[in-house]
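Collaborator request, handled under Task 6.
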Amino acid sequence: MIEAERITQQGRPVAVATAGALGGLAVLHGVWAFSPWPLESRARYAEVLVGVAEEKLPSAKATLGVAGLLSAATSLVLMRADVVPRVGPEWLPRWGVRVLAAILLLRGVAGLVVSGFGRGNAPEAFRRLDLRVYSPLCLALAAGATTTALLPDEASS
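Structure tokens returned to the collaborator:
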């Protein structure tokens, strides 16, 4: 029991930081559904943040969908760490955070491979940021989600 309490005390701040980053990304995606902020144009936004031509940008509805998924991920992380009350089946936070960790790990590794080896046809500005910011952020969030997923059930319920 003492070991579980120690793990929970150390893991909870990681979960809160992970949830904070996911929540911030959810807000950004909500903004991006309607604005290219902080960039000056949708063309530049498409090039730098999405890695596509402007005419291939995802729709506002799709971008809001991503914002919704990031919000759900934020909630799952906070529920798993017992920061907010659990909603839904008992297994949902445990398995949801595991799936989240796997998705983030896959995105992080795929970004490093694709951008690092020059695969695909993404603009150089996107590739540079994918290697320096986007993929490392996904890998850090995957580590945070993994830490949260590994919290003991008896300490996190």
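The cover message to the collaborator said: "The first helix runs from residue 2 to 32. The helical segments are 2-32, 42-50, 60-80, 91-116, 124-149, 153-156. Please let us know whether this matches your experimental observations."
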